[in-house]
Amino acid sequence: MIYVFDFETAGEGAYTADNKLKTVLPLERGLTYKIDIVFPPGPAHLLHVQIRDAIHPVWPANTDADFAGDNEVITFEDEYPLLEPPYQLEVHTWNLDDTYPHRVIIRIGIKSPEKEEIERLEPLYMRLPVYYRV
Fold this sequence. Notes:
Helices cover 11% and strands 46% of the residues. It has 134 residues and is mainly beta. The protein has one domain: Sandwich (Jelly Rolls). The strands form 2 sheets. Strands 1, 3, 7, 8 and 10 form a 5-stranded antiparallel β-sheet that branches. Strands 2, 4, 5, 6 and 9 form a 5-stranded antiparallel β-sheet that branches. β4 and β5 form a beta hairpin. The radius of gyration is 19 Å and the shape is elongated.
């Protein structure tokens, strides 16, 4: 499943590194496999993004780092488990633009852990004689 979140962070000093906008991303139980952070044209590296699991940094993993961009997509693969409720992550954003708000689009791919387990066991299943297969 792919989840897409599109939101805006106000400019004019409304949100800073010390006063971040926190947006909850409701997800499903599973394992992340692909993450896209899309910066449309305009923010000129003034919009900053961190993705966290409560207080723990997830992407980027180092506490004081963040993503920023302009007319670019930051994409990467990473497996991060969401196995206990609440199945959600938080996006922390702040905008250093003194005039304009800026948008960011977050896409997160989630795989079902049950499906992963099935894929892991399938080679063993296929080695069973046909009459043992369900």
